[in-house]
Amino acid sequence: MNVIVITGASSGIGMEFSLQLDDHFSNIDEFWLVARRRDKMEELAKMLKHRTKVFAMDVTKEGQLERLEDALIEKNAVVRMLVNCAGYGLMGPFASGDLEGQLGMIRLNCEALTSVTHRMLPYMRRRSRIIQLASSAAFLPQADFAVYAATKSYVLSFSRALGQELAKKGIYVTSVCPGPVDTPFFDIAERGGTTLNLKKYVMVPADRVVRQAIKDSYYRRSISVCSFPIRSFGLISKFTPHSVILKLMGTLKAMDSVR
Questions:
Q1: Annotated catalytic residue: which of 40, 123, 152, 172?
Q2: Known catalytic membership, residue 123
């Protein structure tokens, strides 16, 4: 049995991956949707043409992840694609932020992603693919977004190194690094702070990000960046000292606050 496993499938980019991949593959037997909200995934499953199995679980709990691995063994399944979308971000100063929320970002964005990937790899075969959701925040440190940017930097670095390791096995890894995306992400992220108004001018719809990511995965690209402004930002972050960019971002944020 060939399956696609998608974490964070109950909303946002994870849901969009489910919808678009449903139209791309005829050789997949089942989609396995993973998230905490069963009701949202069951609604999504009704929209998909493929047979769908719903795993309502918290991927930060190792004991719950065992259920997913047990299902792979029981079904003698091959994971043809793993899409890791589970994650969240919190804005605001680190010192005054909720510590549990900050640690939760590390557990979900880094530890859970690593654990899910490690558990799925034994069930992958040549031409299997992994798509990891990072962020343009991975390109450089970001004040008032410190932990989130650090977690996404981890995802990007981990994914690129893993792709190099797995290339000889014919398994390809793509790290998706979008800028601001029009999803419920900011409903959570802005509870403790706000993003630059400038970022909202370059916001793109989730379907565009996912379409580009699927294309880049098909062409075995290690990084997928959607939109010209974010690609430009990535280039600038490579060739400009981060201290200069951080100072500029601080100035822009101060200007936003007085408007």
A1: 152
A2: no
Helices then strands, each counted (H, E), the chain: 11, 9
d(CA 41, CA 112): 19
- Quick: pLDDT tens for 144-167: 999 999 999 999 999 999 999 999
- Of the candidates 49, 53, 88, 148, the residue annotated as catalytic is 148
User: What pLDDT score does 229 carry?
Assistant: 87
Taking a C-beta distance cutoff of 8 angstroms, is the pair 223, 177 a contact?
yes
* CA 238 vs CA 18, 129, 132, 179, 186: distances in Å: 33, 27, 21, 16, 26
Quick one: pLDDT at residue 129?
98
Determine whether 219 is an active site residue.
no
Q: Is 113 helix (H, G, I), strand (E, B) or coil?
A: helix
- Picking from 151, 163, 138, the residue whose alpha carbon sits closest to that of residue 108 is 151
